[in-house]
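User: Okay, second chain of the day. Same drill as before: sequence in, structure tokens out.
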Amino acid sequence: MKSLTSAEDALKSILEVLGYLVIPFDYRTDVDPANAVYMQMPIHRFTIDFGLPSVQICLEADGDRWHRSAQKKLRDRNRDIEIRKFGWYVLRFQSLVLEGYPTIAASQVKRGIEELQLV
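Assistant: Same drill. Structure tokens below.
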């Protein structure tokens, strides 16, 4: 497993505070606990930052370095479209919020997951 970026590490911490069991995808078992979130999870030809398989939600931590340019934003948008074709929802969170405003980020993560669970 690759090391986490600071934005991914912040999102991991937030997920744990919200009560999710965050584990590397390599440690996945045949039985997914409802609260399991897998790090570096493969979906088709992509590897997502975090996956909540029980409700098919992908959580992405977007750092400024990797997601700043218009070209990279377009790449992310196209990637999200491809991931949605496999039945997954995609939630993206900016590093500025994840790292600088963790309480706000936790609220956004919780609300995003709750809203998608109702779909």
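The helical segments are 6-17, 64-67, 70-84, 95-100, 102-117.

User: Thanks, on to the next one.
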